[in-house]
Amino acid sequence: MQNLFSILDIIARAGGGGSGGGGGGGGSGGGGGDGGIFALWGYGVGLVCKYLMKLPRPINWIITGIFSIVAVISSFYLPLGWLFGIAAAVGAYLGATGKLDNMHNFIKRHAKIKSKLKEASLNDSQWDWETVKPQVEQIFYKFQDDWANFNYASFQTYMIPYYYKRTMLLLGILQSMGRQNKMSEVKILRIVPVAFHDEADDSRDTLTVAFEAKAKDELWENGQKLYQDNNTFIEEWVFVRNQEDSAWILSNIEQNTRTRWLELGNLQEFANQNGFFYSGDFGWLLMPKRGQLFSKSNFKNSDLNSHVAGVYRNLMVQFYVYAPIKEQSQNRFVIAQAALPKSYGNIVVRRKQRWSWGGTKGLTKISMEWGDFNKMYEVYASDMERVTSFELLHPVFMEKLHALPFKTNIEVVDNVVYLYTQDKGASYEQMLSILNDAFDEMKL
Question: Model pTM?
C-alpha cells in the first residue's frame, strides 16, 4: 500500500521542485511536467519488467535483471539523470515483484468505488464523497488529539460502543504503565475511499477509508522518551452509520504495519468468547521494557502482535506474541500477562535445561525446600522475603505447570506476572486456563 500511494508520486514531486526555487509564485508550477516525465519513465521501465517476468523461469529473472541494470545505468546519462535513475529503479522493482499489477488494481478499484459512491449518493447524500470526506477527516484529527491527551469522554462521541470500550481499555493500560503516546504536527497527505457496503438498512452501511498521513509520533514513559517516529503511515479506517443521526462514526482501525504472518489464528473468536478485545499489533505500544524477559526489547527491532486484552476475574490481562527480534520468528514467546494487586519484586521461575544461562541479571539463585522442585525448576529473585510470599511457588500449582504439554516459565516484575512459553503449539486458551489456576492459587 505504501508503494501504491507514494513512490512514483514522490519522484514526480521531486522533479517539480527543481525549477521553482528562485522564480517566485509563477515558477513553482513549471516543474510539474518534469516530475511527470520521471514518473512516466519509471512506469515504462516497470511495464517492461512486468512482461519480462512472464517468461519461463529462471530465464525471466536473468533477463529482467539485465534489463533493469541497463535501464538504471543508462538513465544517469540523461539530463537530471539521478532522478531518471531513481524512477527506473523503482519502476523495475514494482514491475519485477508484481506490485505494478497491484497499483493497476488499486487505481481501477479506487475509480470504481468513487463511481459507485457517486451513484449511491443520488439516493442518499451521506454517500457523497465531498460530504463524507470532511466528516472522516475531522474524526481522524480528533482521534489523534484525544489519544495523545487521554480525552476518554470525547471518544464516545464518534465511536461505536464496542470500539469505544476497546480504545478505553488499551489507553487505560497505556496510562497505567506511565506512558503517553504523543501525536503532534499531524497532517493528512492523502485520503481515499477503498471499500463500501450500501445496505437497505442504513445502520448496516460501512465505508472504509485509507489515510496516508505523517506526524511527530512519540512514546513517553514517566517523562522519558522511548521512541520517536516521523515517518508517514497508512491506516484503513472503517466507518458505520450512527443510528441516531446517520452521521459516520468510527468502527475500526487497521494499521499498515501489522505483521499478519506472525499472528496466531482464531484470536477474534477467543476474544469474543471471553469478553476480551483483539487488536492485532496495536499492543506494540504496550511492549514492556522492564524485567528479564523484556531486557532486550526495543521499539525498532522487536515486535509484539496477536494482542488480546481484557478484564478477567476483575484483573487486567493480556495475551500476545513477543519477538525480541522481529525477523527471527523462531525465537518468539507466547505470553499471558496479568496485573496483580501486590508487588513481588523481580522473580524468575524457569524449567531446568542442560544448557541454561542468562536472563537473571541482578537476581540471586534460590533453592527451594522441596527437592523434586529443584530438580525441575530454578528460581531467581531480587528479594528472598518476597519469594516466600509468592503463592505460585506452591507444589500444587507447579505440578500443574509442569504437566502442560509445553514448557512454561514465570516471571514477576513488581505487580505484573508473565506466564510464557516458546512452544509454537501453545494456544491462548491453554494460557488462559493456567492463568485461571494461578488466580485460584493466589485466591484472587
Answer: 0.72
